[in-house]
Structure prediction request, 249 residues.
Amino acid sequence: MNPTNILASIPVGLRDPLLAEYRNIAANYSEQRWSPAELGGGLFCEIVYTILLGHASGSYASSPSKPRNFVGACRGLEQNSHVPRSFQILIPRLLPALYEVRNNRGVGHVGGDVDPNHMDATFVLSSANWVMCELIRALHSLPVHEAQTIVDKLTEIRIPLIWAKGDIRRVLKPEMKQKQQILVLLASASSTTIGDLLDWLEVKNRAYFMKTLRDMHNNRLLELDESSGAIELLPPGAKTAADIIGDLS
Prediction:
């Protein structure tokens, strides 16, 4: 199922901003840009509110709108008893909290022993992820795990440096160092295994390749689970991958 088409019942004027804003929140978080990740939550809330309002009325707006009283407008959504429960109660009650983080936290927060930016950004990302999963699950009657798989794919980085077809990916600059290729490939895929990388890089020397992965694990560029073969890009690795992609662009 193509993740960019899964919300096809929502007009493109709402769907594209929703996907773009969610990806923006996820990308800022992965690169540890805590404040931008928080600030992105406000626009995300306005887009989701407009979608819920259109779904309930049966007529979607052509673009997102910002109600004068956001909290009051979200309370108004609770009157829509004919929509899925999450569209009536859960999401309308979550959105004001997300909106509050954007308006009254972060750089305006003074005092205390702990900078709230990371904590707030984590809340924004987790909440946005849940809302996206719920929109997909409710609109398409999918199990939660399938909805989450689709949302994970939404945050995959699309870059000209990577060619992808089916289950195969290739780095189009084979002269890059193996470590750089690994980081860029991990940044382009929502889930990756040792076997995937072995295939994608057409590795000849497996022993040297595994040593590279272990070194990258020790340097906290990636999380390596050799027992399961799973590999996950860590925030420092995501930042390095973004720098590599930016330099090559």
In short: The CA atoms of residues 42 and 99 lie 5 Å apart.
